[in-house]
Structure formats: structure tokens, C-alpha cells
Amino acid sequence: MRAIVAHAAKDLRVENLDIPELGANDIRVRIAAGGICGSDLHYYNHGGFGVVRLREPMVLGHEIAGVVESVGASARRVKAGDRVAVSPSRPCNKCKFCLEGRQNQCLDMRFYGSAMRFPHVQGAFREVLVCDEAQAHVVADGVSLGEAAMAEPLAVCLHGARRAGPLLGKNVLITGSGPIGALAVIAARRAGAAEIIVTDVADGALGFARKVGADKTINIAAEPQALAPYAADKGAFDVMFEASGNEAALRGGLDVVRPGGVIVQLGLGGEMKLPVNTIVAKEIELRGTFRFHEEFALAVALIGKGLVDVKPLISATLPFTAATEAFELAMDRSRSMKVQLSF
User: Does 295 reside within a domain?
Assistant: First the structure.
């Protein structure tokens, strides 16, 4: 089979790899669609992120869906011919956090396309993937495999929404309108948010936020004072999802989130300096959110039942043999939102 392998920054190759053997609990999936994620772009652009660096060639990709070709002798949940979305998360289910039901904090996590451990955990941008059947979730009829591949980033936002607490009737601010920020709009609306305002520095990205239901969008670069009215009387927003990973966005949010409000940090960036006195005085809760677990199945179900629509966010689909072109397009925020690869 062929796979997309990162060797170093700006060194992306389509290479031939052996197909792994099929274990008793494994299934073999013919991959159809794969979405390019921000972490994939970090490996492509910089050879890693933060202190994490490529130390050996690594197959990229973790937002994938395909068709089951065969199953192991003990597999019972899926069968050959099933269309499935595959969760890239493989917790050990033995450590103390897994046993507490917090698999996203697993001490021995193997997450597709990650250089956080060595040897690296190889990713899923490949023609054929052999995985544990527990990772596969059957996709409803009528749902494209491109839509199904959006289950992973949607699961990230569903977990973030769960971390925020009740959203019914809340006024919500989302800073950053990349794929995660736009999917946070979908998650917050599904959870009952009354008003959702989204900020970004790119008009193209904000257009996608409007397509999926944002009530108002603000180009904060063009209108740097546009949020100022929301700071009146100690703030107007009940909840903020910070999806840009930008310190200025988070600091600005502290001015417009009301006392007792919640800020969920979705975006990852560098280390930040925060005005702790403001957090204390306004009794603001700053909450982290990391990956997902059971929310992946929920994401597949919501897409399958037509309760959320992720199609407007799929801005382009290119053949996987044009991987470099696809990655370059995914970096152009004026032209793209979620770029997917067709296998």
C-alpha cells in the first residue's frame, strides 16, 4: 500500500509500505477520506511542534474514514463491507486514568500520527489501515465518508463543550475560526447556546463560521475595538471557547467574559502570561480540554442522524498523491477550511 510519510519539515513523500498482519481483534479498512489537521501542518511546516520533533519518518493523519475489507477471527462489532469512521485514539484501558473513565488522559496513549513517543505512532494517511475493531464506528447510510472523517475534529469540540458545562441559553464567544473554532460553533449550537459570536483575523475563515450558524462574526484585525462594548458592566459572555491558541485572544476574552463565566482553552499555542488578578476578581473559571474519548461515537451518531451538518466546512478534496499541494492549500486560510485527501 501507499502512505503519506513526513521525513522532515517540507519533506512529504508518498511511499510504499507493507500492510500489517491482521490480529484476532483487528479489522482491515480501505481508507477513503482523510482530513488534514493543524498538527499535520505543524509536522509538515516545522517537523513538529513545541518540544515534539520528528526523529524518524512518520505516516501523518488521524481524521479518517473508509470501508472494512476483512475482520479478525474474534471481531464481532463490524463486518466486511461496513463503512466506518475510525477513532485515532488507542488508550491502554489499564492505567489509573483509563480505569477512571478518563481515557483521553491515558498514560500509555497511542494516537495516530504522533511523534510524542518514540518509536513514533504511525498515522492513518494510508490506503489500508489495520486497527482494533473497537476504534471503528459504523457510518449511517447517506453520509459520505468525507463527512465521516470529520467525526474526529467534531469530537474534539464536543469534548470541549462538555468541559464548558451547560450551554443552554448561554451567550458564547469563540475566538479563532479555523476548523476547530467553526466546529465549536456547531457543538455550542447543538448544546443550546442562545447567541454565538466568532472572532478571527481572516474574513475567509469567518465566512465559514457564518455558514455553520454563528450569529455574528468580527474581523478583530480590521476592527480591533469591536469587542469593547461587550466589556461593559464586567462582561457579556457566559462562556468563551478560545480556539486560536493566541495569548492576545485569551487576554481579551477576560475583559468580555462576565463574572463567574467559563473560558475553555481549545487552541494550542506557546506558553502564555495571563492577568491572574482579573481571573481572581471576576471569579472566572479557565478550563483545559484535551482530545476526547466517548465523544467520538457521539460525533458519528450526530452526523449520521443529520443533527449536525459538517459539509459546509469541507472546502476541498484532493487525491492523496497530490499531498504536498493539499497541505499547501490547507495552509491558505483565504481559500480553505478543511482540506481532505481522497484515497
Answer: no
